[in-house]
């Protein structure tokens, strides 16, 4: 899997090399999570050449190009780049997930403006899988928000009703387009409605789609509510450089 340790396209030579080594050892599958489709294209192209089954999660929060995601493409640019993969037949719609991750209630006025056009664009190419989660306010994330001049004595007190409202908006948009919305690690009562379920990014369902069926039992979880099956190898594990993209909400310190 590439990667939960940063944007894989920033280290595509390392990712490609590690993936190739795994591919030569036997059966392997790739679940790529990227905010920058243009940078990550070569990774998936190499995986295809190596015969590696691949699924791609395109993460588009609506904040790209703002001070909250300063090195990430704008939503329009990221969407156009991602959809070119599908339109040119490079990847099938069934192998694509649109991620809106995280939802940041403090910035919801920006994100909500993007959602209708974003969902419509992906739906028009046949993508049906949508995933979302809400920001986790780690202590170092609070400090980053403070550096942007936000009053943390008020911020981070967002009510669960507001969060439910945000996700309900996504439920409304996606259901109209016959898309399937999944929640990632959200347990709040009232969220699992209208056919919405919880599915981790690296769940057993994901591995089944990739043809991987011989999973070992879970060893640990990232968070108590995480539904990922963690029998995976992160292609950037051990890389201590940190991600240079500067997303304000990132769980990387």
Structure write-up:
This protein is of the alpha/beta class and 253 residues long. The protein has a single domain (8-209), classed as TIM Barrel, CATH 3.20.20. 35% of the residues lie in helices and 12% in strands. It has helices at 12-25, 37-49, 75-87, 108-123, 139-147, 160-176, 204-209; strands at 30-34, 54-59, 96-103, 129-134, 180-183, 197-198. It has a 6-stranded parallel sheet with strand order 1-2-3-4-5-6, covered by helices on one side. Helix 4 (108-123) links the parallel strand 3 (96-103) and strand 4. It is globular, with a radius of gyration of 18 Å. The protein starts with 11 loop residues before the first helix and ends in a 44-residue tail after the last helix.
Strand order of the largest sheet: 1-2-3-4-5-6
Radius of gyration: 18 Å
Largest sheet: 6 strands, parallel
Write the element-wise H/E pattern from the N-terminal end onward: HEHEHEHEHHEEH
Distance between the termini: 21 Å
Q: From the 3D structure, determine the CATH topology.
A: TIM Barrel
Number of domain modules: 1
Q: Total number of β-strand segments?
A: 6
Low-confidence segments, given as residue ranges, are: none
Report the principal-axis shape. globular
